[in-house]
Batch of 3 targets.
Target 1
Amino acid sequence: MEFDARKSGPKDVPPQEERGISFKDLKEILREPSSTNVGGPAKSKGTEAAAADSTEVLYRQAIIEREQVIRDLLEGKQPSLETLIRIVTDFVEALSISSHLLVVSFSYSKDLFYPLFKSVNHAILAVKLGMGFEKYEKNDLIKLGVACLLSDVGIWKVPRELILKTGRLSPSEQAEVRRHSTYSGEMLKILPTGHQWLQTVAEQSHERENGSGYPRGLRGDEIHEFAKIIGLVESYEAITHYRPYRPEGLRTPDAALKELINSHESEGFSGEMVKILVRQLSVFPPGSWVRLNTGEIGQVLESNSFAPLRPKVEVWIDASQTRLKNPKVIDLDNGLLVYITGCINPAALPKEK
């Protein structure tokens, strides 16, 4: 039976068409891995794109499974967390092998309702960041990832028209959007005994070290460490991905890291966490579109911790700005003649002729 928020769940939940859940969006996500990479050139088998198919399936599956958890929460049901634990476990294992998941997280366009996938992106980024903490073991990373997937469930109780509004929100509209942290905490009260910490993390994910966050203006050690990590990766993800309220467009990943480095104190982020994020993502983070000195354009597949300026790049556009039918992979660490001259905003990629 199709879920209908008007007939079940908390009384204060807006009707389905006013909230975020969109079965049209889910149908789009449920499609088989397509021959096109949304936001980028067409992918073809026989390249590293084929090797990344499994991570693309994992990414879409995470969105779908998380959606079911959200629907259970909105209906007042106690959700099963086993599926989320399994998915995040796969995230941890995948990220320990390659950066394909980071690349996939850049492949979904503004045509999809962004709350569907932003928390999945947060989980991927948080696990990657958490891997830079020596004290975090595999179980800690899994807990962190699950906390990410649940941290903003309250956004589904905010009217969709506010989430999709372009331009600046009014003070009252901003206050309503900010209530999603409180809504998240309320929705997660139904979790079984021993999982109350997930409610705490969700409520605190927008708190900041300097007390500038919301809803309570907590500071420093008053904030759960997972909530601090989620707040940082959420900011990075929002800067590098489409948001309807930001008409000036997204930043390139390298520009986003520079922005966080320059503004972390005023924004209330831990300087140490920002350093770890930069170290984990490198100068040219996986998923970045870059121009080579040859005039070719490609997407970074893997960073290089020993030579940050020389990652592995999949070239999609040749020097004449023509899209390649069969992209090629170049490991810049294998030679000095080819190098990156700068990052490119995906919106500025040459259009397919």
Target 2
Amino acid sequence: MVISLALFTLYAAVLILIVSTLKILRDYERRLSHLSPSIVVEVQTTSWSVKVVSLGIQDIALTENMFRLIAEQAEAERYRRARAMYAERPPLHLVDTVDQRRLG
């Protein structure tokens, strides 16, 4: 169960990356409409040392389950960041002491 959940989360993260990359490519395509998308992809991926052989842009329809998964992943990330911020804050009893010293 844990392994399949981890794989499912990995697949969702990869899908999010692909969708966001396609959105970026579509923006480039609109801006550089006189160039073919394959040239735009080639320019973008040259620094990665990747040769793109074939390119196809399609509209991806996400299922309701995938939308829920993406929302859960975003919520988990917000929770992780909140926990990190909470851990970095000074203890409340020390803050009160510092404030009292400033006032006194």
Target 3
Amino acid sequence: MNKTRRYLFNMFSQMGLEDSPELTVKAEAVMFIRAQMDKKKLTQKVLAEQIGWTPSRLSDLLRGKLDLFSYDKINEALAPFSYVIHAYPKLERSKPAKATREAA
């Protein structure tokens, strides 16, 4: 795990957020998008047009409103840079319902 990912994961975990692994991946993607925009000198308006979003929608992502975006939506923003998030859902066994005892 690289330093940035470890830092983000620790930060989200310390905040008590159960979805800290997901938030970590999304935050890394946003930082990557920002870096690529700077590197390629892209404005929010230009990138928004490329991915078919409004500039305000892209602004929400870049300002860290991560809960508004699924992996699929973030992948739309990553597409111009030829990157993608691969998310693998975790299969967990459901907890059995607690049996209730009737008082005799």
